Amino acid sequence: MTKRTSRLFQALITGALLLIAAAPASAGFPVKMSATNDSILQFLGAENAKLVFIDRWEGMAQLCYIDFSEDTEWPQVHRIEAAKGPKDTGPKVPMLSPDGNWVVFCDSGLGGEHGAKYSNNSNLYLCRLEEQAQPILLVEDHAHEPRWMWRANTPTIVYPTHAFDKAWEATVKVGDEDIANPAETKKISVNLSTNPPQVGVPEVLFDGGGYTGGISWDNRYLCGAGGLVAIIDLQSSDPQPNIVGPIGFGTENAFGSQACNGSMSPSQKFPGTLCFLDFGSSHKEFPGINNGRAWTSWQLIHVTNPRGESVKHFGFPRNPAYPLETPDSSLANSVGRWHHPEWANHPYYITATLNVDRSFRNPDPTSFPLWKSASNQERIYLINAKDSAYIEVMRQDEETIEFNPGVGLHWPGLWVEIPAEFEEDTLWAPVLHEKGPAVKRGGISFNGTRIISPYPIRTITVYRANGSVVERISPEGHAKRIVLAQLHGLSTGTYFVRVETLRAGTQVFRYMPLR
User: Fold this and answer.
1) Among 65, 110, 174, 270, which is least packed by CB within 10 angstroms?
2) b/e map of 399-409 (b: 16 or more CB within 10 Å)?
3) What residues in the chain have per-residue pLDDT under 50?
4) 431 near 481, Cβ under 8 Å?
5) Residue 174: phi, psi to the nearest 5?
6) Are 126 and 133 in contact (CB under 8 A)?
7) pTM for this structure?
8) How far is residue 39's CA from residue 230's CA, in Å, rounded to a whole number?
9) What's the pLDDT score for residue 277?
């Protein structure tokens, strides 16, 4: 039995208890791990996965990474020593390459986080994912918020030349002066198989604005964010931005008509799908969003299609794996909200940080001066965009949090190894509890073993969480009842069972083997 197999065997025995055990702190960082390597890989349904983020602490910004496939029980935070600088001008917006071995980042400018300011003094760097790696300068000045093109013969990076809030507007304000918008969206190729990587010449991808949120898998749609969120169709004869966020745009919003942090999905089935945050809505005109209730600033991560129609939304986790350690019990329910949502290279996964507003329930700021901050990005979460499941990866150590604006864990980016037999599903999945009753949708029911359909079943496909095919069954005759006893032999993790029928349509069920 290998060391890693032994750890997996222990995880199967202890199950969810690992998630509430005391996690060790990472040396040199004010953070604690919230889940083991095996728990995270089981959540992702993958053998290999990596995470990059910026740790802002004591006035500095440090590029960090975690390799969840390392042979350790708890994730280890690694620092890239040469990718470090002052908090306001250091590394920002790290994005892992399609092969997961490199990271691209910028080093100053707005980083998608501040107001309508003119900025172009941002450089673009490429760096191997190693602690002693030396960043390679790709573009000097006029290079912000990089994103990878997922469908390119040679690894290619897309970036805006300027960081205006509304990049698609014809004019922008610089101080008190309105000037013609000089922003463009460019691309640059890098041959990662050479040593050092061979860097191409920047090319203009779109000359009508600097789009910050990346490009769709089919290279058709660009996403821009800042003040509002827009998407543009590059294949149109007359490309015009379509405002897709905030959801309540054009109506009375509780916190103003603003949206930010747009990120384009790498989906092949649904190109142009994107996620973003908005500043909330006082309206109840959206029954499919937040159960028809109003929502507050950054409370929801929205997912829309290119037309701006809501596809899904994710509320912030109200019961984090680790309760807030506060000096007063009245602070234990402090308000949380999302920040920096980012789609991974895999269409099923999104990363985001969790802000904790510790001032909201502070009865006496003078008595608890350390709990005065209203916006600390203290935790990093992984979100399964397919079934809305969350897992907390890490959190800042509450005993050593520096309560100043802009500190914390910023810009998480996830890379998940995509299997060769990956098949992207076209349906979202309901949740089936391990010991719960049968789930029924569209007339098809599934209880974890037996599938019953009012019409003949054509195909049953079992997928791992990462989209790889475990088994495909084509029942003989006109079978309407199928027993899947083999599901109980699956290893721990999350699976999806897709049932295609002759007349009852297709449904997908989430399945977790009994432990």
Assistant:
1) 174
2) eebbeeebbbb
3) 1-22, 27-28, 110-117, 251-255, 320-333, 360-362, 368-373
4) no
5) -120, 105
6) no
7) 0.87
8) 36
9) 93
